[in-house]
Queue: 2 jobs
Job 1
Amino acid sequence: MSTPDPLDTLEAEAIHIIREALSTARAPLLMFSAGKDSAVLLHLALRAFAPALPPVRLLHVDTGWKFREMYRFRDRAVAASGLDLVVHRNPDAVAAGINPFDHGPLHTNLWKTEGLKQALAALDCDMALGGARRDEERTRAKERIFSLRSAQQGWDPRRQRPELWHVFNTRLAAGESLRVFPLSDWTERDVWRYIAREAIPLPDLYFAAPRPTVIRDDMIVMVDDDRFPLAGEQPVERMIRFRSLGCYPLSAAVESEARDVAAIIAELATSRSGERAGRRIDREDGTLEAKKAEGYF
């Protein structure tokens, strides 16, 4: 008897979670950031309800500072999915001109945390599905698959419900909501193996190519557009790729020769750095746990 592929088990588990969530939700949303995990989550959601479309809208909380390639990929992926996309930008952050260069942690708070809370409230969302995984960061490991949020979108790890044998409690009191993480049990390597198996399209930024960069705070940062302030620096072309994508000034690259999925999987086998080591927001004042308690996804 052949040994079953662990990816089959992870896929079946994720599809079960997605079906459970969308069958009980009143106004669900699927978070779509245009990164690899949200691309896998979208693929699984489409598979879970094929040939029909899943009963969910996509939500992109946009900061205006994503890589240009992420916006191109987002529009291609959404068009191919046939689902509706809602894009929300925090009007308060727009009016104040909040940006990652001048405003530090305030950029993350207003654009991402407050922007998300605004969008969920405006859309009356009771269940938001996202692609976060427990292996990404220590705080993520505290999450349940169905993670309870207060009426103010706050997260308290002490109020989370047991999930023995993957039996999920989706009951909500007035104002409460759930964040649902179907990829909780996946690792970064699992995600890449699934991408290879399913031939899931991704932004080119995940694959090594020569790109213009500068060094900021010992991090390799790509100069993606002319809004990037150069302090007498001359961008240097380096062979880089990204393991995690967000706002381009806050997403550090790694030097790499991995130009395809197979090479990335081989590279991960010897890597000792964390997947989010290049995310500057994890180094900002306050921990990711504190950000999540305030409503960060």
Job 2
Amino acid sequence: MKRIGFLFFVSLLIFSSCKAPSDRERSEKDHLRIVYTDWSESMALTYLTSILLERDLGFGVSLKMTEVDNVFNEIASAEADIFVDAWLPSTHSEYLALYENRIEVLGINYQPARTGFVVPKYMDIESIGQLNDYYTGPIAGIDTTAGIMRVAREVIEAYGLQNELRVLSEEQMIGELRNAVRRQERIVITGWDPHWMFFRYDLKFLMDPLEIFMQEEQIYSIARTGFADENPVVATFLERMVLTERQMKSLLFEMHLSADPREGVKKWIKENEFVVNQWTRGLTPQRKKIM
């Protein structure tokens, strides 16, 4: 009897050891790692994506905020799965070139997007080329590794501008814009649209006759190589998740108004259930895990 019990115990161990890896692999496949930056539209798109993946498709999601150069490095090295705020064909092109064949583009989330030098409308200036005669103060930028900062440095050199490009956080940049507008002072920032600042302040892009800033870009979802084949449900969802200009601006507005950005995004989802249902329609949710 003892021998039978021992053999049963050994068999159980063997069965468990054979089964455990597949359970673990399934668990890892059902858990998605999303990286993002602290830029407004990146936060909005990331929270929107993660909430719907968890609520409607049954995935576990972990989020990590980091600098944009780390974002692309982690996607390329498979330390992360998804980034939903890649600006192409210009702003983030250097990162795709750097990690060629290690990143796959899944689909467009929003268009048209735009970057450039932005000023309040009360400033009597229309073109970047006029800056040397009109404003030689500092240009308020964002973190140094951002794609818009790379292009801004190219613009300053190409136009022979005397302006210093300051490295700030997005929050600090917006703070300087807010203070300047309140005092009706001159200011130039590295701006981008979509952004909530365009419905908070009367702003305009400076024309770029040399066309160094792209007049129009698209925001894409990207993933580590092989992700779409391994996760066709998620890939299909991200290909469908395309926001119109009105939808994007209302999403950013709700997030900006809320003390908790995620709650603002949840409010937007509740008010746009018909839209989000089109993104998840027909996609099979992951089975709930039984504890």
